[in-house]
């Protein structure tokens, strides 16, 4: 029976026997790899014990495969290995600081896979005292260890990692730079975010995307120019991320600054031919759960939408008029007015809302307000009739206001 068939049929004990007894390194390595797929097996405890023993073997290939499989089996499996390596009995209820001490000890192991496992584990334990030890691994000869150490430092989020992570941003390996950029974005202090700014020009697309994604965490307008530049990136993923960061930035800065930044963004977008920003803006409006993001997006759509994306934007903004958030409704209404209505599409969609008695009067009132900006003779006649027929004061009041802008009552 082949090793694949043993794994397929759940023969964990047979794979354990081969891992422990065979002299064939290739077979031992493959058995160790396959045992990582036995997380829900009745013999899981035996599987973990066998892999812990194999991870401390003399063969680099077997050790690496065993550690990878323990990682697949979960934190408890890796913790058992670390405890065995450190000579500490790490029970499930052991304090996190006790586990962290053992993991830090294994960070100095000769086998890179062990250092990788220790670095991963420290990120999950979230112990700030581990940060200095993790930063030492930023100079590890193995880039996999450097990357995982940077990732874990970012998870812990202690500011002491900021300066060492800045050095990671110049690593020769893109994977390490990516983890460094992501970690600085997670830490998010002024120094960390400042260090990300030059990375919008990194050679690696994913590094640029991660850096640009962190720009939205700023509490000021410093990254606006960088984000505008990123909107012209050759990568669609980077451009999309830049749009999301712009909206996030507008949501994070003080209100008195957000108005200025919005104006700056609109001005700079009007000077570029890249209109790919609209689709992600619509997605934010339709899918985000953050009120500030949706409000800023609704406002922006009325000022950056080109003719080719106009239909989809109108549908999204009209739908936003039915939302519970009053400010979002107001921004959507003003953006619809800003788009204009040369083809009467906005008017037709809004009249459906206005004439539907089942729609909330506040929503109908918002639609009427917009009709006062973009409507024509058809809207004037509809509102004229509505004034006499409606039972809702808010609808009548909005209709009076709108009809006065459309030429008055007939």
Describe the structure in your own words:
By secondary structure, the protein is mostly helical. Helices cover 70% and strands 0% of the residues. It is built from 25 helices and no strands. The longest helix is centred in the middle third of the chain and has 17 residues. It holds the Pfam family HEAT. This is HEAT repeat domain-containing protein. Keywords: Repeat. InterPro entries: ARM-like (IPR011989), ARM-type_fold (IPR016024), HEAT (IPR000357), PBS_lyase_HEAT (IPR004155).
Low-pLDDT stretches are none
Question: Helical element count?
Answer: 25
Largest sheet: none
Mean pLDDT: 88
User: Which structural class should the secondary elements be placed in?
Assistant: mainly alpha
The radius of gyration computed from the alpha-carbon positions, rounded to a whole number of angstroms, is 30 Å
Elements, N to C (H/E)? HHHHHHHHHHHHHHHHHHHHHHHHH
What gap, in angstroms, lies between the N and C termini?
91 Å
- The total count of strands amounts to 0
- DSSP strand content: under 5%
Helix percent band: 55-70%
Shape: elongated
């Amino acid at each position: 029976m082949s090793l694949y068939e043993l794994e397929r049929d759940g023969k964990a004990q047979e794979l354990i026997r081969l891992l422990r007894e065979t002299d064939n390194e290739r077979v031992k390595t493959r058995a160790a790899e396959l045992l990582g797929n036995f997380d829900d097996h009745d013999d899981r405890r035996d599987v973990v014990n066998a892999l812990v023993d194999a991870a401390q073997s003399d063969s680099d290939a077997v050790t690496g495969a065993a550690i990878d499989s323990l990682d697949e089996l979960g934190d408890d499996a890796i913790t058992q290995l670390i405890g065995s390596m450190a000579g500490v009995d790490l029970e499930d209820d052991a304090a996190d600081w006790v586990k962290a001490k053992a993991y830090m000890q294994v960070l100095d192991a000769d086998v890179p896979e062990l250092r990788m496992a220790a670095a991963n584990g420290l990120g999950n334990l979230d112990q700030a005292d581990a940060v200095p030890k993790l930063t030492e691994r930023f100079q590890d000869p193995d880039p996999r260890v450097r990357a995982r150490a940077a990732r874990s430092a970012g998870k812990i989020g202690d500011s002491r990692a900021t300066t060492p992570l800045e050095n990671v941003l110049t690593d020769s390996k893109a994977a390490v730079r990516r983890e460094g950029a992501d970690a600085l974005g997670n830490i998010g202090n002024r120094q960390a975010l400042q260090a990300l700014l030059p990375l919008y020009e990194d050679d690696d697309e994913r590094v640029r995307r991660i850096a640009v994604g962190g720009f939205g965490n700023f509490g000021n307008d410093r990254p606006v120019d960088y984000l505008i530049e990123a909107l012209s990136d050759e990568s669609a993923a980077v451009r999309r991320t830049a749009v999301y960061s712009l909206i996030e930035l507008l949501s994070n800065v003080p209100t008195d600054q957000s108005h200025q930044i919005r104006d700056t963004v609109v001005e700079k977008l009007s000077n570029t031919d890249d209109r790919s920003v609209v689709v992600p803006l619509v997605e934010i409006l339709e899918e985000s759960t953050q009120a500030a993001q949706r409000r800023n997006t609704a406002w922006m759509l009325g000022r950056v939408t080109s003719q080719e994306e106009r239909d989809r934007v109108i549908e999204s903004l009209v739908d936003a008029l039915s939302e519970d958030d009053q400010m979002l409704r107001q921004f959507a209404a003003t953006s619809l007015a800003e788009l204009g209505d040369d083809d009467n599409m906005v008017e037709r969609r809004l009249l459906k809302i206005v004439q539907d008695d089942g729609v909330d009067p506040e929503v109908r009132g918002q639609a009427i307000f917009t009709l006062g900006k973009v409507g024509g003779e058809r809207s004037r006649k509809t509102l004229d009739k509505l004034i006499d027929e409606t039972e809702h004061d808010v609808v009548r009041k909005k209709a009076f206001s709108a009809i006065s802008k459309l030429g008055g009552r007939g």
